[in-house]
TrEMBL record:
Pfam families: Glyco_hydro_4, Glyco_hydro_4C. Substrate binds at R97, N151. Coiled coil: none annotated. One of its GO terms (biological process) is carbohydrate metabolic process. Mn(2+) binds at C173, H203. GO terms for molecular function: hydrolase activity, hydrolyzing O-glycosyl compounds; metal ion binding; oxidoreductase activity, acting on the CH-OH group of donors, NAD or NADP as acceptor. This is Diacetylchitobiose-6-phosphate hydrolase. Keywords: Cobalt, Glycosidase, Hydrolase, Iron, Manganese, Metal-binding, NAD, Nickel. Residues 198-414 form the Glycosyl hydrolase family 4 C-terminal domain. The record marks E113 as: Increases basicity of active site Tyr. PANTHER family: 6-PHOSPHO-BETA-GLUCOSIDASE (PTHR32092:SF5), 6-PHOSPHO-BETA-GLUCOSIDASE-RELATED (PTHR32092). Binds 1 NAD(+) per subunit.
Amino acid sequence: MTREALKLVTIGGGSSYTPELIEGYIKRRDQLPIKEIWLVDIPAGEEKLNIVGAMAKRMVKAAGLDWQIHLTLDRQAALKDADFVSTQFRVGRLPARIKDERIPNYYGLIGQETNGAGGIFKAFRTVPVILDIVHDMQTLCPNAWLINFTNPSGMITEAIKTYGHWDKVIGLCNVPVMAMLSEPELIGKTLDDLTYKFAGIDHFHWHRVWDNTGQEVTMQIIDKLFGDDDAGLPTNIFDVPFFKDQLANMKMIPCGYHRYYYRQEEMLKHGLEEYANPEGTRAQQVTRIEEELFDLYKDPNLDYKPKQLAERGGAHYSDAACEAIASIYQDKKTHMVVSTLNQGSVPDLPSDHVVEVSAQVGAAGAVPMAFGHFQPAERGWIQLMKNMELVIVEAAATGNYGLALQAFTMNPLIPAGATAKHVLDEMLVAHQKYLPQFATKIKELNAAGLTVQDPIAAELTEKPALA
């Protein structure tokens, strides 16, 4: 890429993470000749967009930069002739996440925003929107790179490639970043001393580590994870320890989200305790954190990212997005962990679908690094989870109710049977405003009188139109 006046667009610009994004651009001012940054949101997010946008302008001014910051609700105007587009939006905002957590919890199931029933519905709501964005990009900025960190990032990246037919896309996750930032000091090393190799899918990957003599140090890190605080664990995941014997057998480090599968009993117990607690589920807690953050952002003297932003579970997402953009623009060939086309890097999965792997990121995009075959236990897990992702994405893109039921049946966090089907149906009703692809089924469920049972989720649910 040779343009000397870059136009960057962020969809979901009113996000509380935007100050981290702006900070990341400022840190890379010598690598990115930015002319304009467009922050885009929807009418319901206009107030937050204005608050965050004003803060972004203060941050840029304090850095002595003349970048133009544009705030808009007109996505198409923003996208025209963009060089890079980043996506960081949540369809239905935090009320939708509350429903994703509380409705499964009501029926004794894990409620989590990217795993289980909640993760499936986050994809159902998000896929149609991302495909609309890609459709706009095909006309308005056909040469742009799309840097996605909208969750569930791996499934959204899969939808962009498979159903949007857009190849210039990289999906990001902060979990590998946090591991690489925190693990080296456990064994007295710096990141520069170590070589990391990650493989799997978003929120379901493993990694191995070598030092600068070529010796594998994965087990040294595993030993340090027991007895110490777990390195790199996102703040939104309850810290129940893995079983050390299991990790010693696999000789790999699972990501924090594996707790929902390896320690499902304990994670469910903790989730149901939160559900019963007056402070509520994680989404309800995050709602309060966001309110505090936006109160801070309103301060006309605040021109830097506040430390309180680290309390959000997605810390480092935005900085990773900035690094991906700089790496592509400068052809830096940086090692990053990204969601991208497999191309044989994980031979236990199809080459033509998206995986999350270590890759070299440069002008050609992400070039995945070979990881090799998994052992039978991990191979079984990853093949189930990836095929479940493919079912979820197809259901989200087509509105096929039978496929949605298949996804619920396949998911290891959802016991198959009548309750699973009822949770699926209830969540369709709860999220009906954001699920146009399932309109026919939702109309049938409304006609049958299906209602949301959890009182807090019910209060947040849009009532069906009287027609």
